[in-house]
Amino acid sequence: MSIDFLMLLKQEMMLIVIIFILMFLKLGKDRSNESYMTIVNALLLANVVIGFFGNEEGVLFAEMFRTNKLMVLEKNILNLGMLIISMQSFVWLKTHKHVPEFYILLLSTMLGMFFMISAGNLLMFYLGLELSTIPLAAAANFDLAKRRSSEAAMKLIFSSAFSSSLLLFGISLIYGTTGTLIFSQIPLHLGNNPLQIFAFILLLAGLAFKISVAPFHLWTADVYEGAPVAVTSFLSVVSKGAVLFVFVSVLYTVFKPLAGAWYNMLFILSLLTIIIGNLFAIRQDNFKRFLAFSSIAQVGFILVGISGSSTFGSASVVYFVLIYVFSNLAAFGVISLVSSITGNESISNYRGFYKTNPVLSWILTLALFSLAGVPPTAGFFGKFFLLFAGAGKGNYWFITIAALNMIISFYYYLRIVKAIFMDENDHPIPRVLIPLMPRLALYTCIAGVLAVGFISYIYDYIHSLSRGM
Amino acid sequence: MAKLAYLVPLFPLIGFLINGLGRKTLSKSLIGLLGCGVILASFVVSVGIFLQVKQDGFQPQIVHLFDFIKVQSFNIPFSFQVDQLSSLFLLIITGVGFLIHLYSTSYMHNEETQHYGRYFAYLNLFVFSMLLLVLGANYVIMFIGWEGVGLCSYLLIGYWFKNNNYNYAARKAFVMNRIGDVGFLLAVFWILAKLGTVSYGDVFAKASTFSTFDVTAITMLLFVGAMGKSAQIPLYTWLPDAMAGPTPVSALIHAATMVTAGIYMIVRSNVLYTMAPTTQAVVAIVGLATAFLAATIALKQNDIKKVLAYSTVSQLGYMFLGLGVGAYTGAVFHVMTHAFFKALLFLGAGSVIHAMGNEQDIRVMGGLKKYMPITHITFLLACLAISGIPPFSGFFSKDEILAAAYEHNKVLWLIGAITAGLTAFYMFRLYVMTFLGGFRGTHDQEHHLHESPSAMTIPLIVLAILSVIGGFVGIPEAFAHNAHALEHFLSPVIVKSADAAHGLDTSTEYMLMAISVALAVIAIIYAWTRFSKKPEIAEAEGAGKLLANRWYVDELYDKIIANPLIALGGFLKNVVEKSGIDGLVNGVGRGVNYAGRQIRLMQSGQVGNYILLMVLSMVLMIILVFYGNNLNPVLKYFSK
């Protein structure tokens, strides 16, 4: 029993162990930031590798906690994203005073996400969600000297508090109308009860806030812009990915009886999100804000996939998030390097970037191609499967509008590529030297962008896992 | 040996790859050796295959290489068919092709090494494509070769790509061929749609299930393809312009490859054509009209290659006449003899052009007989062959087609015989003005005149021998019983039509021969006496001008097809695209940009506003879910 229990909680245990190691290191003798970060990255790498082995399925603590192969995979994707972000923030953290705290905050957040993904009970789910939000607000304020950073943190905490209250309200109503908080029990008691639908809308709004679905997305741009790049990339990839995973599994299992209600809402929200994300992204000049809005549009596409409500839906979402980890983090990696070394964050400064930084230019271009969905990058296959899943219900108008929006997104992604390669600039961003850690991280991302689409085994594997869900 | 059929196209492909990739590094002699060697190797294999096929009781063999397109039950294999027809064409293509390659090594020797390599690479690819076309066991493989020869002709006609006129000629050839290709493709699709297979064996076995309409349409569409490739009215104008390429290329296009593809394809599909008498009539009439029209044009041309080009168009017309009246063997026979004497004529012309320092106008030639004895004799033999003088090869093949035409319809025969007379006339006009009389060129040119080197004369001699004796494989029934070796050889692949030729009695056949030979002889004597004394140097006038300007067909095409299309293009570009499509696209772009600017106001930076908006949207969502029934029609429209 005891061994089983540890094995089921393996990934959570790993995180806790790492957090404790970091605390002890902090208490011990002073060491340089670089040696500290080497240790952290080694630990995270070990975490990713071990995460893939010896996984079991099972339920613990009266269905509070459950795990299966799909959840393990989802957590591994998040682990991978964490590792890449950590390696990319090397330059930024090198001179920072509070390196251990940064990792402890982010890893605590990850722990919250893991519990949230594995939650089998609405309260457990809520606890995980809170654990994944509160440290994040502190992390957003990590550039203590910058006012914008503090502003971002305040906005994040205020709006999070509001969305949490929505969630709690929803949860209490669900409990009131069904008499249970356990995921496997709730569907049995759901029906056409208006109060249940009301509760569901509250829950949906709370979750929509977390994944910045329009019109609950407004905090995103301000927070993304103000927070340090590492935190922004964590927010837009890891944090969003985790909530998306939960979102899919909650919709498909717990609220399946209300599918009639959420299908229409999902359909409206997704179109709204894509269109608003696109309209905002088209006029942004700050690179981080740009990526924030383009990631809103990406979430809109994910909702398209979810609306298909089939095994294709969940498989395509997990698959897309995996690709999104690689492509978005590659873009963020380049921006993080350029921003921490030269201080440039605006797109117009990237004109003529290719002349001085050919390697970074190609990495950024491939990442943007993948985000836009240009074949043969993985992003194309990701979007293709999302639209394919969304088309499962035969609502081709919907898919057509989504596909037309992809064309609009081409415009703003390719605009940057044009600036990099074709625009003349007398004072381009000077040559940026890439240290080893970020270099490895970027190459990993590009390998993912180029390979994931072609290794059909990956999608087949995810699909086979989601069929068992 | 038939199992080794894949080697025949493989060798030229290897030659193409090595010469094409190594054109900058290999030496000229190596390129020439390789270019000729691979074709010779193919020829040797072809001879082996032919000897096997020639044995009695040989059954057609399918050599399966791999599955080309395979979707569920639908399967197009990449396989070759070795039978009497393909083995004969293999011999012609590789044999004549080899001689032309050999000739080219000397003719093209002044080119830069890099271009020399490019030339031989194209030449090898050309032969490869033609072999693929002939060997393929289904229409799709044939189509690959069909497109391949089209591409190679484009590349070779425009070989001297620095001259824009040559590029236009290449483009014209390509476009004309593409028009025909559409017909071919549609026919293949039609067959596929009706039968679900494109393999010859299956198609011909199931051909009886076609309705009359289907089979007529398919054969007509195939004929459209043949019109393009084999230069028939109305798609013939590319072939005379194709003279822009180097002369050996013309020889290759006119004799061994390319233009014979259309004949081959129709003979291959003879089962279908025999089922479609309407198409046959069209083929015969188009063929005859082409033969006559081209012959009249050739009367007044002054460019040595142009005359030969129109004579090719005219001879191809004969072949189609033969196909149209069901004389498939006769058509193949004429393809073969024509390959010999037309290759010879072109190579001879090349030899003359070579000696004249790239001069092609026969008005400034004359008296070349004494400077270039071998070229002169071989050219004369070829002229006699094409004019249909017995016992040269052209006589037998042309006679067979004319006899079949007579049996079919006497008018066809009459025009055919007159055309034969015209042929004899313009060929001897060419011969006399080039080789007899006194030299009319500049002093420099006269000083430079010489016989060509042996790499050029040997192919001439070999082809001359073939032109003389090539006809003996098809001795008509009237001369000797059962002596038509070719007909006997091809009989397994050609269906016997009800009204097979040789139903004529012997005396009628003798009479027909006598008339056509007499016409030819009269024409030759007339041309000889007229031009040996007083060469035709003045510009043509009156009716002659009409002929010299090729009946103004090119101009007519420009007027009724090209110009309206260009005008339509201009309209689409200036009006539809600029104000219509561009306006729409730019309008959408401006609209999106404007919306983006406006919607940014939502992003105020005030958390209170954000939360207010969230609350409002939730209220909206609640209203939508609970009171949204009225909206349902709209939603249903979008979300089904």
Automatic annotation (TrEMBL), chain B:
Q: Tell me which InterPro entries the record gives.
A: NADHpl_OxRdtase_5_subgr (IPR018393), ND/Mrp_TM (IPR001750), NU5C-like (IPR003945), Proton_antipo_N (IPR001516)
| Annotated compartments | Endomembrane system; Membrane
The way it spans or sits in the membrane comes to: Multi-pass membrane protein
Q: Mind listing the GO molecular function terms for this protein?
A: NADH dehydrogenase (ubiquinone) activity; NADH dehydrogenase activity; quinone binding
Q: Which GO terms describe its cellular component?
A: endomembrane system; membrane
In terms of superkingdom, the source organism counts as: Bacteria
One short Pfam name that applies is Proton_antipo_M
Domain NADH:quinone oxidoreductase/Mrp antiporter transmembrane intervals: 138-423
- Write out the transmembrane intervals: 6-22, 29-51, 85-104, 116-135, 141-161, 182-201, 207-228, 249-267, 279-300, 307-329, 335-356, 377-396, 411-432, 453-475, 510-528, 607-627
List each copy of the NADH-Ubiquinone oxidoreductase (complex I) chain 5 N-terminal domain by range: 68-120
Gene3D superfamilies in UniProt: 1.20.5.2700
Q: Which GO biological process entries does UniProt record here?
A: ATP synthesis coupled electron transport; electron transport coupled proton transport
Flavoprotein found in the keyword field:
no
- Coiled-coil residue windows: none
Q: PANTHER family from the xrefs? A: NADH-UBIQUINONE OXIDOREDUCTASE CHAIN 5
Q: What is this protein called?
A: NADH dehydrogenase subunit L
Gene that specifies this protein: nuoL
